[in-house]
Amino acid sequence: MIFLFRSFIDFIKRDERWLLHTVLFLVLCYVVLSVLVVMMSTTSLDTGITLELQEDHSPGLDRLMNIISWFASIPGALFTMGLAALGFLWLKKKTEAVFILAPVLVVPIVSVIKRIVDRARPTADLVRVVRDFNHESFPSGHVVFYTVLFGTLTYLMYRHKDIPNVVRGLVSLLSITLILSVPFSRMYLGAHWFTDVMAGFFLGCILLIGLILWYDRIKAKRGISWY
Prior knowledge:
By secondary structure, this protein is mostly helical. It contains ten helices and no strands. It has helices at residues 2-14, 16-39, 44-53, 59-69, 74-90, 94-99, 106-117, 141-159, 165-188, 194-221. The two termini are 22 Å apart.
C-alpha cells in the first residue's frame, strides 16, 4: 500500500496531464456526491452500509473506533501535529516542522462547506448513534483532516530518505492505516453517512495534492528537486 502511494504520487507529478486528470476526477466525484446529498438527504445506501457495519457492535469495538477517531479531536490533533513538528525540529528540518501544521487550514474550509450543505447527522431512529454530534454532517471533517494530515506525513517520510527506514516505514504504515480506517470509524459510531466519508476522502485528496505541490514549490525555490 505504501509503495502504491509513492508510485502514484511520483507518476502524476511527472506528467502534468495525469495530475490535472486526477484532480478533475476527484472534483467530479465530490460534486456528484454533493448534488446527491442536496437532492436526497439520506439514501438507502447510507443507512444500509451503516447498519451493516454496526451489526456486530460491542463495547470493545466502540472503544477501538473512538480511539481511531481521536486524532481529529482538538487534543488528538494538537498532540499529533505537535509531536510530528518536534520530530522534524529534532532532525533539523524546520520547513517540515512548520509545514506539518498546515493541515489545520482545512478546518475552516470544511466548516464553511458543512454550513452551506447543512446536512443533518445520522439519528438514533435510523442507526445506532454511539455519540451525539451537534455540527453538520457533510462532508466528514475527520476524513478530510486525516487524509490531509497523515497523507502529508506519509509524503514527507517518503521524500526524506535521510530519516531511518524503520521510522519512515512505521510512520507511513500507521498514517495510511488511519486514513483507511477512519471512514469506517465514523460510520460505525453513527457520526456520518457513507456519502459523508466518501466526499471527505475526495475533498481531502484534492487538498492534499495542493499541499504537496505547495511544499515542493517551496523546496524548488531553495534549489531542492526530488526528480
